[in-house]
Amino acid sequence: MRPGGAPWTILRMSVQWTDPSWRSEAEEWIRAEISDLGCALTDPIEHSHVRPWGTVARVSTDNGLLWFKANIAPLTFELRLIELLAAHAVPHLVAREPSRGWMLMEDAGPLVSELYGEEPPLVVWREFLCEYARLQVAAAPAAEKLIAAGVPDRRLPSLLEPFERVLEDDRLVRPPKPDALTPDELDRLHALMPKLQESVAALAVLGLPDSVQHDDLHPWNVCVEAGEYRFIDWGDACVSQPMLTLEIPLQWVGRDGSAVAKEAYLEPWTALRPQEDLLAATEAAALLAQVTGVLKWDLINSALNDEERVGYEHGIPRRLRHLLELAGA
What is the mean pLDDT of each run of 10 residues along the chain (329 residues)? Predict the structure, then answer.
């Protein structure tokens, strides 16, 4: 499993998503919506992807494939995010239920992972990282609207305070599993705070606008059809300094591909800042990307019961250990 984005192999069923009454209600809504669209089911609705924090169902119709998605309450902002970014490279919504955050979306094409496996050619990474950065540039003026719609606010001035609170929460950093952080690791994390403050300052001086930040950009969350890329699964997203996005792709491409990935992603931002300045700040961005990753897991944990957390307790300790590794601490 790669540190930043491999598909989860643990499948814990959420009581909500597998409850027959919930599924019956969701499927009734899906049938009503596709009927309004003038479509009919060609196969039974397939609940193909179930996680404690959300579920996706495959909906085959006589007018093409659709996807239904539902999230836990803290992640229902995904619906409004997709609505606000509808002019960009995100899935096309065909139906919505705002009170529950339910979405019915057109198929966005094959996943990059389906076409190329875990290691897409660097030319593919180059293409979609550049396209994704263009999306961020275009979406930056909507940052305040995204935050007002519930997208987590992880802009630089407010980033480290909630992170320090997580470090003090034993339930998150010392779960009753072998993954628990040791007292020594926690001491080293607390000692990193000045370095993280320096990283905040290094990114702030660039003056890039805050924008949407996917926070889980890997080959399972990118679709491509007829040469056009679309980015899916925005439930991990936040509004932040945009370069924090780059860390997970860099973990995937490895050392050999890092120069290509950085150049492709940073190219659209060179209209605002020289490339050498952006490159110099990538280390700071990598450190703070672990902070947003930790805060993402903290948000998810806030809505899960003890049963649903089983098997996923390692999310926060793993990101914190990777932070220590990156910082040489």
Answer: 40 72 97 97 94 96 97 97 97 96 97 93 97 98 98 97 96 88 97 98 98 97 95 97 97 94 98 97 98 97 88 92 94
Cα 26–Cα 145–Cα 57 angle in degrees, nearest 5? 20
DSSP string, 205-265: TT-PPPEEE-S--STTSEEEETTEEEE---TT-EEE-GGGGGHHHHHHHHHHHHHHHHHHH
The bridge status of strand 93-97 relative to strand 222-225 is: unpaired
Q: Angle at CA 184, nearest 5°, toward 183 and 189?
A: 95
Q: Are the C-beta atoms of 152 and 299 separated by less than 8 Å? A: yes
Which helix or strand (DSSP H or E) is residue 293 part of?
helix 282-301
- Give pTM, 2 decimals: 0.93
Domains detected in the chain: 15-106 (3.30.200.20), 112-327 (3.90.1200.10)
